[in-house]
Write a structure and sequence with these properties.
This protein is an alpha/beta fold and 322 residues long. Helix content is 36%, strand content 16%. The radius of gyration is 22 Å and the shape is globular.
Length: 322
């Protein structure tokens, strides 16, 4: 699938001309979901016929499916043309977009609708079977959140701890990156992240924190540079990962005007990673292409799943006067 010819609109004019109808949008989804032709999700057979305009019936097992079944578009009542406009809006903004901006661009009457759509699309920004980083990889952590008086570094409380991995490309450039929020800076958390995102045999460069003491035992080459816990010194030793951290914090504060929800920080990290790893694309349409391509491979995301980590607001208490 990922080696298929990349077919996407280069401009807004091309986009509007190509995806003016639901039929055109559905044909594009078919092209990206089944680049080598239809495959039955139940039995894998390649032969089917179209029934009821939008459903395919497998010639082998008789099961019916649609191109949107099992994707983020499953059971959606909104026309696909609106979803394609939303994906173009999200992908075409170089620095990202907020739910409020999406609401204004698409004319939604409800902020909640725009928020839900945006988070569904952010879930599609993580490719399920993406390749692990390889070669030389810098790894370090950073905290994001409010200031804590008297606390900083790895002992900070009530902040989100984000671990960052950045590929070295040449002498100074950054290749791909991976980000993850972790519960703490323990070896279990940090090594689990490295195992998931870095190819064994790669050279992993970290500072001397004990949380990285398992790296070599897990099949990696390990370069350790001991530095004091000061940003300036770490930035000089691990320049790529700290440039990524700087850009990430600037992006979080800029795109959301400082209103970053801790409950949905993971989705923000996914979006930043998606955009950063495609920062050299000459056409914004390529990000749209990748987003649609991944959207047909990601499982449906019901609203209740999107908000399950969001704390409910307590009803306002009114003061009673006697």
């Amino acid at each position: 699938m990922w080696g298929a010819v990349e077919d996407y609109p280069r401009t807004l004019v091309e986009f509007e001309a190509r995806f003016a109808t639901d039929e055109a949008c559905r044909a594009y989804l078919c092209q990206l979901r089944w680049p080598e032709g239809f495959r039955c999700p139940r039995c894998g057979a390649a032969k089917a016929w179209l029934v009821r305009t939008v459903r395919y019936e497998c010639a082998a097992c008789g099961s019916q499916t649609s191109v949107t079944a099992g994707t983020i578009f499953q059971d959606l009542r909104t026309p696909l043309t609106m979803w394609f406009r939303a994906m173009w809006c999200v992908a075409s903004q170089r620095t990202g977009t907020s739910a409020r901006a999406l609401q204004q661009s698409l004319g939604f009457g409800s902020y909640q609708t725009a928020w839900t759509w945006l988070h569904k699309l952010r879930r599609a920004m993580v490719r399920p079977d993406r390749d692990r980083l390889a070669g030389r990889v810098e790894v370090d952590e950073t905290y994001f959140g409010g200031e804590e008086a008297g606390l900083d570094g790895r002992g900070a409380l009530k902040k989100a701890l984000i671990v960052v991995a950045a590929e070295a490309e040449g002498r100074h450039r950054i290749g791909r990156i991976r980000l993850r929020r972790v519960p703490n800076a323990s070896a279990d958390s940090l090594q689990g992240f490295i195992d998931d995102v870095v190819e064994p045999g790669s050279l992993v460069h970290t500072d001397g924190w004990l949380g990285y003491d398992r790296v070599r035992r897990h099949g990696y080459r390990h370069r350790i540079t001991f530095v004091a816990d000061h940003a300036e010194q770490k930035s000089a030793v691990l320049p790529r990962v700290h440039l990524v951290v700087s850009l990430l914090k600037r992006w979080l504060l800029g795109t959301h005007q400082g209103a970053v929800s801790p409950a949905h920080l993971d989705y923000d990290l996914d979006e930043f990673t998606f955009r950063f790893n495609r920062r050299r694309s000459q056409h914004r349409g390529k990000l749209f292409y990748r987003l649609v391509q991944q959207a047909v491979r990601v499982q449906p995301a019901p609203y209740r799943d999107l908000v399950k980590h969001v704390p409910r607001r307590r009803p306002a208490r009114h003061r009673h006067h006697n």
